[in-house]
Amino acid sequence: DQAKSMIEMCKALGSPLLLACSSTSQHATGELDAIARDLRKLAMLALPHRIKVVYEGLSWGRHINEYTTAWAAVEAADCPNLGLCIDSYHVFATSTPLDPLDDIDPDKIFFAESRGTEPLKFTTLVPLKKGTNIIHVIATDENGLQGRETLVIRRK
Prior knowledge:
Blueprint: H1 2-13, E1 17-21, H2 32-46, E2 52-56, H3 67-77, E3 82-87, H4 88-93, E4 109-113, E5 131-140, E6 146-155
Parallel strand pairs: 1-2, 2-3, 3-4
Antiparallel strand pairs: 5-6
Helix pairs in contact: 2-3
């Protein structure tokens, strides 16, 4: 009933995405097959409403706390409207390697979040290699305040 209510809320708000995060409950299962089965059920409920379900592995999640394991669950669920959220905060909080990003189907990354406060204006061109590029930027504004941003850019 809770899943159906969230889908109805997405529909009422006109939201094309429903974010589902990995569980933090001590009662949650760690069995990947069971998690994939639950994600598939949720995605199938959302499918007739044209809503995509985005699964995110929280860095403080009980069993799934890295994007790599979240991707394994999404891939196992094998549902067209189920995809992955990649949040740079959780990636760097768990020190998850970035190389496995190359193994994820880009069409299944439904949402990506990069933590930063203001958009950065680039004055330097950065050459990109094929595969995963990690660019660390430190920007200073006119008041001398510094901001840090890490960009992960995939190039085919």
